[in-house]
Amino acid sequence: MVLMTDTARSHSRPITEQDRARGRRIAQARTKKELTQAQLADMVGLSGGLVGQWETGKVTLTAKNAAKLEKILEVPMAWLLTGDDPHEKRLAQTQTEQEYLDVIRDIPVDQQEAFLSMVRAAASMISKQK
Question: Which residue intervals make up region (Disordered) (predicted)?
Fold first, then answer.
């Protein structure tokens, strides 16, 4: 899925049920944290109206703002973007994630598990540094 900018949505693309569902998840996480749209917008560093547009599905999140929401709302980014639906997860892959897949696919199948173990170890070290 190409993540559009937060400031515009293509006028030729209608709001989909996935857009609405993503917006409901943002609203759900925001209200669980007892934040208003204006408070969340302030925490992200954006205008208050933008949060409302995210929540109605009129504007799609950028990866950068999804990462900010993940930290502020304390929910997984994958859940925000896809609701953890496997098909939706594939659609929500960023360019970087696509590149990771391309790298892994270039490794011989019999060596992929060893490579994955190294990646997991590196990811664990990085997450412990946070």
Answer: 1-29
